[in-house]
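A quick aside before the break. I want you to see a complete sequence-to-structure record at least once, exactly as it would be stored in a machine-readable document. Don't worry about memorizing anything.
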Amino acid sequence: MRTDATAKPQRGISFLLIDARTPGITIRPILSIDGAHSLNEVFLDDVVVPVANRIGDEGQGWAMAKFLLDNERAFSAEVPRNKRMLARLRAVARETGRLADPVFAQQLAEAEVQLQSLEWLTLRALSEHGAAADGRWPAGSVLHVLGSELQQRTGALLVEALGDRGVVAYPEFDGEAPPPGYPPGPDAAPGITADFLYRRAVTIYGGSNEIQRNLIARWCLQRA
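That is the input. The structure line, written in C-alpha cells, reads:
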C-alpha cells in the first residue's frame, strides 16, 4: 500500500496485513475459464488499518514484495505437480492407444527430458539459496518460465491424448461414480480439459513469462 506519495513509486510502498473482515472490504468471486471459483477481486473503500499491522519498516514494502515474488516464481517450477501430470499423461496415452503414435511418443519423451532438467535446476536453486545476490542467476524467473510452460505443454498433450473426448471439460466430481448427466468417456478423462483451461493462468500469475524473460535478458546483459 502506498504510504508516501512524495517518494519514488517503488519506495513509497509499505507492507500491511489486513483482516478480510475489516469494514470497507468487498470481495467478489471471479469464475475462471474452467468454470471454477478460485479467484476473487477485492475492493477497499476507506479501509482503516492500524500501524501495528505493518510488516517491517515504512517504505520497505516493495523490497518485501520482490522477495515474496522471487520465492513464488521459484515455486512455479512445480516439480511434483509436473511429475504427477506426466505420469497421468503416460497412463492416459497408454489407455487411449496414443503411445503407438511415434510423434506423440516423441513429444512425451521430450516433456520427460524437460522435467528432468527442471528438477536439476530446482535442486541447484535450493542449494544456492541464501548465497550472495550479486553472483546469483535469476532462479525465480527461470524456474517460473520453465515450470509453468511445462505444465501447459503437458496439459495440452493430455487433452490430445483424449482425442475427440478432449473437447469436453469433464469437471471434477467427488464420489466413486459420476453424477447423473456427467459426460461419458474414458475413466481417466475427468478433470483433464478443465485443468488444461485453468493452467492458462500459470504463465501470468507471479509476473507473466514475458516479464520473466525480460528480467533474465537484463541479467545476461549486465554480465555480458
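Two observations worth writing down. The mean pLDDT is 87. Residues 86 and 154 are 7 Å apart (CA to CA). We'll return to this after the break.
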